[in-house]
Specification:
The complex is a heterodimer of chains A (548) and B (327).
Chain A (H helix, E strand, L loop, with lengths): L5 H18 L6 H6 L11 E2 L1 H4 L1 E8 L1 H22 L4 E6 L4 E5 L5 H8 L5 E2 L8 E2 L1 E5 L5 E5 L1 H24 L7 E5 L3 E7 L5 H8 L3 E6 L6 H6 L6 E5 L7 E5 L4 E2 L3 E8 L6 E7 L1 H13 L5 E9 L6 E7 L11 E5 L4 H13 L6 E9 L1 H55 L2 E2 L1 H30 L4 H33 L2 H35 L10
Parallel strand pairs in A: 1-21
Antiparallel strand pairs in A: 2-10, 2-20, 3-4, 4-8, 5-6, 7-8, 9-10, 11-14, 11-17, 12-13, 15-16, 16-19, 17-18
Chain B lengths: L19 H21 L3 E2 L1 H4 L1 E8 L12 H9 L6 E5 L5 E7 L9 H16 L3 E9 L1 H29 L2 H25 L2 E2 L1 H31 L5 H33 L2 H23 L1 H8 L6 H14 L2
Parallel strand pairs in B: 1-6
Antiparallel strand pairs in B: 2-4, 2-5, 3-4
Helix pairs in contact in B: 1-6, 5-6, 5-7, 6-7, 6-9, 6-10, 7-8, 7-9, 8-9
The chains are: A alpha+beta (548), B alpha+beta (327).
Chain lengths: 548, 327
């Protein structure tokens, strides 16, 4: 074990050099790194986890039942449209939480009706994979009903699409409130993970990304008021929504909107020139401008309603839909722009403008996990971690020097190389240092020393058994080898499991621990050994003094 | 040249295996007490596993000064009046710092459990007011806590099975069985201490358990490695004597390594923030119990399970048959 080929020496030297240059960028300012650091050297800095630099971690879950409900509503519309075009008379069109069903007036239409309805489902998947097929299944139910039920694959596809567009919407919304770079990724089936560094207070963030913010423009029922409708019955195709300013007031509106929020191309917060109240001014796109111009021209003197749908209120059951304003049309609005007043505060006008600009979320997102660390606590954690590392490091160093003297110093140098390799690798592969990660680093120091302890104790033992120093050193290294591998591999198994189980901080710990294990085996068998071999080579006589 | 101080009395051989019955009896007693504690008292699961919310707060500093002290009793009455069920307030090391725990909120018919949880957290934040800085917020809903529970159980199980398979592969099944008995013993007793002291048990404590499982196995493997080596060397030595010698030979290493690792983890416990203290505590305890178990639990069990003797024969007899078959 005491021979080193020149090749091996070069490899060890190169790895150590790489470690130094990979770690160094962490001690330089970003500016120095940009302007003076040679481009061919590693130039990344260690990223700190949210628990160290402060920030918010929000796990959002999409309300898939809401998504399904909206879809069934759309299917209901499709059924009505298809039957009207084909002139098939139907009755009892309705939806349950699971499906849409409809009955025919004339049973003789059944074949044609089924044929027409089968044009609604869309093909999904490539047609070759297992999950391909149609997104809706048309079947004949009991009591003469025809049923249209979304398939599992169809629901999965809807949710996938909704998550993708929700991520886009969230990104646009968040970009409006700050400069730091959030990470927004899909997690699992129907979840989105938002990580926003540097923000202690998540209230605003949650307000901004949690609300659906679906804006629609509706026609108001021409001659029946909401109160009258409640007293008798609500006309078909109409709904009642409460007013935003005065909860006792309600409006009877046509269920199908005239214009959707997607057709708004711009929305800006501002102030009303007369009342000085916060308002939002907006512009329609070409298509909506024409549509709205036409609508207002025909309905001068009558009100229309601007409705904001925010999914559900905090309890999760009460729908959060309200009429922001129901102005009376004084003259045709042909310019394609307008303004919304709706009892806003400056902040809520601002937020709503951001939300309209970014688009509506396909469904409500609920926060199911929130972890926020304020920047000051993060700084305290770093301070505590650094102090612990220094004190722990000095303690271990003193212990090793006391127990093994000169060779103890070798092992300390090896541990130092070990740390440099871990930090360097973590910086360059872009993994994140978390608080448990710091603990993992300190623990690694303790365990890296173990490899050296095993070797040194073995050398001492061999010498006690009467071996000469050189052969004792030789067998010390070779005999300790398998023990060190076995001991470290078992720890590696635990670390890999942790990586697989963990989220965020725990993962950080697993990464540091695993890297630490590799670095430990490397430094114990190559770095320490190289130092010992060099020391032996420098002895004057071939009979070296007992080193331990 | 300073050679270091070899403080271990190598010339002495401690008759550890002679006391194996006493050791195992003591350890079984502690083990049973831990199991009893875990069934009667149970673990004090943190919000990771139980759901609920947690806030770490600090009184705001008055214009450049140090943060003032928190009035815990005032906080208690303020938060107790919110109708959020059990609200625990725990003073931390500094008088300006405290932890608030709010239990998972009960749900009325038709309400969404996740939203109710968020609403409760918002209520607490509002009630705390301006004079208090919220330094850390954790709100875990019931869906996530359920998944984390499952992940925690799976992690410990998989880690144990992985380690078992590895030792089986590298040694023999007897070694693997003894190592796993020792590790289950360590984990159970550490859990028992968490139950006894009512410490919060969360995801980072599971990570600590896995690490200590790794550490304890590490220790055990070092002793087993030596036993295997001696089995090859001394074919006629009685098994208990051989084990005793192996333990004694590796004892100095065990003590030094436990010492250095303890120094490192103690530093984390003393200087670390609240977030990491539970983890460090589990590690400190785990190192002590892991060291004990690799010497006083794993080896006696290995002796009772019994091992295959004559390890050297394997390779040689293979060669011999190969030579015999050669023309």
């Amino acid at each position: 074990m005491l021979q080193f080929s020149r090749f091996k020496i070069v490899v060890v030297a190169l790895v150590c050099l790489w470690g130094i240059f990979a770690t160094l960028p962490n001690f330089l300012s970003e500016e120095t790194l940009k302007n003076y650091w040679p481009g061919f050297l590693p130039n990344k800095q260690l990223q700190l986890g949210l628990d160290l630099k402060g920030g918010a971690h929000l796990l959002l879950q999409m309300d898939s039942s809401e998504l399904k409900k909206d879809w069934l509503k759309a299917i209901r519309g499709d059924v009505r449209r298809v039957f009207r075009t084909a002139k098939i008379r139907f009755k009892g069109l309705g939806q349950t939480p699971e499906l849409v069903r409809v009955k025919l007036v004339n049973e003789s239409d059944r074949t044609e009706a089924l044929r027409q309805l089968r044009t609604i489902p869309q093909q999904i998947g490539s047609g070759f994979t297992a999950d391909s097929g149609y997104d809706i299944e048309v079947s004949e139910g009991s009591d003469g009903f025809i049923e249209l039920q979304p398939t599992q694959a169809g629901i999965a596809q809807r949710i996938s699409g909704a998550i993708t567009s929700a991520i886009e919407v969230i990104r646009k919304r968040i970009d409006n409130i700050g400069t730091s770079e959030p990470s927004i990724v899909r997690q699992g089936f129907d979840r989105i993970l938002v990580q926003y560094p540097g923000l202690g207070d998540t209230k605003r963030l949650k307000e901004l990304i949690g609300k659906t913010a679906r804006l629609t423009f509706h026609d108001v029922h021409p001659n029946t008021s909401a109160a009258e409708a409640r007293a008798s019955r609500i006309p078909l195709g109409f709904v009642i929504y409460p007013d935003a300013e005065d909860p006792t007031r309600e409006e009877l509106l046509q269920e199908i909107p005239i214009i959707y929020g997607e057709d708004l191309v711009d929305a800006q917060p501002g102030f009303d020139q007369n009342t000085n109240e916060p308002i939002i001014s907006f512009r329609f796109n070409q298509k909506a401008a024409v549509l709205f111009g036409e609508f207002t021209r025909r309905n001068v003197g009558r009100p229309f309603a601007i409705v904001l749908d925010n999914g559900f209120k905090d309890d999760g059951v009460t729908p959060d839909i309200k009429v922001l304003s129901a102005p009376v049309i004084r003259e045709p609005i042909l310019g394609g722009s307008g303004q919304i007043s709706g009892n806003f505060s400056v902040e809520s006008a601002n937020d709503l403008a951001v939300q309209i600009r970014s688009g509506a979320l396909p469904a409500t997102l609920t926060v199911i996990e929130e972890r926020t660390v304020g920047p000051s606590l993060g700084a305290d954690s770093i301070d505590g971690g650094v102090t612990a590392a220094i004190v722990g490091g000095f303690g271990v160093a003193a212990f090793m020097l006391f127990a093994y003297g000169f060779f103890g110093a070798f092992s300390l140098l090896a541990v130092f190389v070990n740390l440099i390799l871990i930090v360097g690798t973590m910086s360059q592969i872009g993994s994140t240092l978390t608080l448990p990660g710091i603990a993992g680093l300190i623990l690694t120091v303790g365990m890296a020393v173990d490899a050296n302890v095993l070797i040194y104790e073995r050398i001492r033992e061999e010498m006690r058994n009467g071996k000469q120093p050189i052969s004792a050193i030789d067998s010390g290294f070779s005999r300790a080898f398998s023990t060190i591998i076995d001991a470290n591999l078992t720890t590696l198994i635990a670390a890999v499991v942790m990586f697989w189980l963990g989220s965020g901080p725990i993962r950080g710990f697993a990464v540091t621990l695993s890297l630490g294990i590799f670095a430990t085996v490397f430094t114990a068998f190559l770095v320490t050994r190289l130092m010992v071999v060099t020391w032996i080579g420098r002895q004057k006589s071939r009979k070296i003094p007992a080193p331990l | 040249m300073f050679k270091g101080v070899d403080f271990w009395p190598h010339e002495k051989t401690f008759p550890i295996m002679d006391f194996r019955r006493t050791c195992v009896m003591i350890t079984s007693g502690i083990f049973l007490a831990a199991v009893l504690l875990l069934t009667v008292q149970g673990l004090n699961f943190g919000i990771d596993f139980k759901g609920g919310s947690l806030f770490e707060i600090q009184a705001k500093a008055e214009a450049g000064g140090e943060p003032g002290a928190l009035d815990i009793s005032e906080l208690r009455s303020k938060l107790g009046g919110l109708g959020l069920g059990d609200v625990q307030i725990q003073q931390l090391d500094k008088p300006s710092d405290a932890l608030i725990r709010v239990e998972q909120q009960p749900v009325k018919e038709g309400e969404d459990v996740e939203k109710v949880q968020q609403a409760a957290a918002a209520k607490v934040q509002e009630a705390l007011g301006d004079g208090i800085e919220i330094r850390r917020t954790e709100v875990v809903g019931s869906a996530v806590s359920g998944e984390l529970q499952w992940a925690g159980i799976m992690a410990v199980t998989f880690a144990m099975v992985g380690i078992l398979l590895y030792i089986w592969f590298r040694f023999e099944w007897q070694f693997a069985a003894a190592a796993v008995i020792a590790t289950v013993h360590d984990i159970t007793i550490t859990l028992g201490v968490f139950a006894l002291l009512g410490l919060d048990f969360g995801l980072s404590e599971v990570a600590a358990l896995l690490t200590l499982a790794g550490y304890s196995i590490n220790d055990t493997v070092v002793v087993f490695d030596r036993i295997r080596e001696n089995l090859r060397r001394y074919k006629k030595m009685a098994l208990d004597k051989l084990m005793n010698q192996s333990i004694n030979e590796t004892m100095s290493r065990t003590v030094v390594t436990s010492g250095t690792t303890l120094i490192a983890v103690l530093a984390v416990y003393v200087f670390g923030t609240e977030v990491i203290k539970g983890f460090a505590f589990a590690m400190i305890f785990g190192i002590l119990i892991g060291t004990w178990s690799s010497v006083f639990v794993a080896s006696p069990f290995l002796l009772w399970i019994g091992v295959k003797r004559d390890w050297s024969g394997l390779a040689k007899s293979d060669k011999a048959t190969a030579a015999a078959q050669a023309p």
